[in-house]
Design a protein that fits this description.
About 45% of the residues are buried. The chain is built from 10 helices and no strands. With about 280 residues, it is an all-alpha fold. The longest helix is centred in the C-terminal third of the chain and has 29 residues, at about 215-245.
């Protein structure tokens, strides 16, 4: 099966599934969707650990992903009111303490040379994708959460899809030959950037009661998401090139690993969470 067919099949399954989870199962602050986010954090963290291991860098392939996923679970529990406000911050401090304690518990002196890469890889997994992906759960606490979640996800995925299709059909022989991703094309970047703006503009025009953005605010938000989506894709490409692998994993079949599918979301999620309320609150006229 070609890569294009695999992407189309996954999109045809994944997008409706997300729509159902977000719009038709919103109870308990989108419990079903946020459970999916927590599972994705764990699986994506395992893929990152696999990259480290492929380079001979020590990791905790289960322990580190569990810590990352536990932070996502803490964010969700806090967002529903099950736990006290700012509990996720306290738990993050607890995670850091656990990592410090695990770092000094060494029975074999010969393994001391593994401590630095082991601790560094664990902290990286906690931050990326643990903390960054957890901002998607935080987005579900904003006003009109179902519409806001779909806006964010659609703008980022449209960027990814448009960049891929434009590069595939119109960018042949025009690759930028970037060291981190040699096959990326300028037309792909432009198409993805425009797609993000188009999605936000369309959402604001069709659903103004749920997405209250003026023309220039919609363009601004779309442009920022477009740039961040590209940065997220290139950052993960850099990780893969560094670890000398084509895909982050095999979970998504022809699409590659899970990180290959969600990389654009990671840098965009925290920016969207803080920027969107400012744009919709009327602070910028």
């Amino acid at each position: 099966m070609s890569n294009l067919k695999s992407r189309l099949i996954l999109t045809a399954i994944f997008i409706p599934g997300l729509f159902v989870a977000i719009f038709f199962l919103p109870f308990l602050n989108h419990l079903v969707f946020n459970l999916m986010v927590i599972i994705v954090i764990f699986l994506a963290s395992q893929e990152i650990c696999g990259m480290f291991q492929g380079k001979g860098i020590s990791t905790w392939p289960v322990f580190a992903p569990l810590l990352a996923a536990s932070y996502g679970a803490a964010v969700y529990a806090e967002s529903t009111g099950f736990l006290i406000p700012n509990f996720s911050l306290y738990w993050l401090i607890g995670i850091i303490t656990i990592i410090f304690m695990a770092g000094i518990i060494v029975r074999d002196e010969k393994k001391m040379n593994e401590r630095l890469p082991l601790l560094a890889s664990t902290i990286f997994v906690i931050v990326y994708p643990g903390i960054l992906l957890s901002f998607i759960t935080r987005i579900s606490t904003l006003q009109e959460p179902s519409a806001t979640l779909l806006l964010f996800i659609a703008a980022i995925f449209a960027n990814d899809i448009a960049a891929y299709l434009a590069g595939r059909f119109f960018g042949r022989g025009k690759a930028l030959k970037l060291p981190i991703s040699p096959k990326k094309t300028l037309i792909g970047f432009i198409a993805g950037f425009i797609a993000s703006i188009g999605i936000v503009l369309a959402a604001a025009a069709i659903f103004p009661w749920a997405i209250p953005l003026s023309l220039w605010k919609a363009i601004t938000l779309g442009a920022i998401l477009g740039v961040l989506g590209i940065i997220g894709d290139l950052f993960e490409s850099a990780l893969k090139r560094s670890s000398e692998v084509k895909d982050s994993g095999v979970l998504m079949g022809g699409r590659g690993g899970l990180m290959d599918a969600i990389d654009s979301l990671l840098p965009a999620a925290p920016v969207f969470f803080y920027l969107y309320p400012l744009l919709t609150a009327g602070l910028f006229q």
